[in-house]
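note to self: dont lose this again. the chain is below, predicted strucutre after it. 403 aa total, dont forget to put it in the shared folder this time
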Amino acid sequence: MLPSEVLQISQPNVQEFILENENVDEKKLLLSKKEILGIPSNLIANQISGRRKAKIKLPTWYKAKGIVYHSNLAIEQSSSEATARFKTQTIADLIKSRKSMVDLTGGFGVDSFFLSKNFDQVNYVEPNKELVEIVTHNYQLLRTTNIQHYAQTAEEFLKDTSSQFDLFFLDPSRRDESNRKVFRLADCVPNITKLQPHIFERTNHLLLKASPLLDIQQGLREIAHVKKIIVVSVENDCKELLFFIDQNFSDEPVIEAVNLDQQGKVKETFSFLASDEKKSETLFSKPNAYLYEPNASILKGGAFKLISSRFSLFKLQTSTHLYTSQELIPNFPGRTFKIEKIDPTDRELKMLLPDGKANVATRNYPLSAEALKKKLKLKDGGEKFVIGFSGIDKKHITIAIKI
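---
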């Protein structure tokens, strides 16, 4: 997108058209018109699509007038506003001096924007000149004045700068040159495993964002001096892994499992060491009165035994990450259910679910949730849950109410 096109799209009449057609199928728009208000229709269609994606993910951008969106991929790969807000608070807790920082993988500029609230100066680095143009324009609308823009690769910036910074942030692209998804840090762009020594010539602190699909232990094998690993979920949906790296740290890192709300506020947190998990012992039991499922961050972090011992819970089976107790355990970091019936007969199922509706889930069970729902002839909905899982001696179906 050329600078002139950015200006055209930001014009009030064009923005008004985009706003009024926010819910229009942009593909049909492309087929029906070559130009809209003198602008190629594909540019308008891209803005409509981008605005729709930003509505929930980036409400600050969505609400601002005149915002220009880049490709859908740039928005999809950007942090959500919730996780970016969380990073800002996290960094405030982790480092004292916050004069200047560098975002080596600027992208759509979401993380740079929120981190700029906690730093005197932010340096945004992005090799895509078109994207830099768009982000510069958007920052002006968002009234951000302490961000410098560099249309460079991470490698070029590190080669050119002689300054010292309080923090570097990286969110490497998880796609290779053929646009295929990759998961090892060494396969991402830029390659943090090669850049880390050069970054540590300019700072002591590095915050690395990685895919939630990355194996945590694999990440620790690829990068050194990790002080803290934060597994970040939003409303129990695991979104990203954060590796806080301190050049002077050489001990075992803390793993912190965090579940946020849509605004980026912490709902649940659970911290532990991997060595604590290894040393923990778990007791097993048949289902009792209550059923517990840890949140997505705890499961990703791997605290399968420790969550049991810390909350005095019994595990249902080694590979079934569900837990049980006779008495209600308050403040459990995840979902808690009161069991109504274990292994109901067809008659009991109809009595307990008279409208034939339930929220069906399976954990370590031979059928998928959809297959179990079909087998039991249930429809989605209602307040009750039907959960299929494997226990220590048999497979169970449980009717439960979420607490």
